[in-house]
Amino acid sequence: VRVGERTYPGFPASAVGLSDPAARVAFFALLPDQDLNERVEVFARDAAGNQSTVDLPDYRVFPKPFARSRIQVDDRFLQRVVPAIAQNTPNMTIDTSDVLQGFLTINGELRRKNGETIAALAQKSAPDMMWKENFQQLGNSQVEARFADHRTYLYQGKEVDQQVHLGFDLAVTANVPIASAQRGVVVHADYLGIYGNCVIVDHGLGVQTLYAHLASMDVKPGDRVEKGQTLGRSGMTGLAGGDHLHFTMLVNGQAVNPVEWWDSKWMQDRVFRKVKEAGGASGSEAS
To answer: What is the pTM of this model?
Structure first.
């Protein structure tokens, strides 16, 4: 499936229990930075390179408001995060003598590189839907920042940067156990720039979850985890102002709103019902 310039791969539909060998299943999303009227199309290509494309029919998109916030950064914060991130990112030059400049490099260039790493990990997604129910939010957590929050950063009263926050910041107390939102396989458990100590779990069919700023990690790549299993402890590693979990829901490496995936009704309407309907129609595609 192609949404604008972004492409989402199809997987054999046997992953969701469909018997038609020609059927494919794909999860895709319209992202916050895309136009509401972005073209959505389904395409197929054979071994000879012949391609057929059709527009996705009968879909509706509703606008969603996203928050805007202003974040003050001071020397104390910069002195804490910039040298630590630089030390853990040896393959990139980050100025630690001028911490503001170092911060801007981290918040811009390193953020983009981290995004490329996350997108590459989507290629490791298994052709298997490992879940049968909705994903799970961190228990008893308070939301400190929401998905697609547009942030303006201020230093000494002046605007110095703008970025979009692609996840949820969830806080309980310091050093709380961080549970996997769903069963899956760990594809990343290491330091990752702005995300600090970061675990990424693959749930199959391009769907993954990211857990960032951890104080410690209890899993390693290749580990199979169950829904609710502890992945590590919350912390403030990376570009974090305090102890919390930064949680991101990913579809083929692209961040999407986790609120929908936490919602059992949305999952029934937008995932499981569509799979069931596709199973009842020969040659259908489930998406």
So the answer is: 0.95
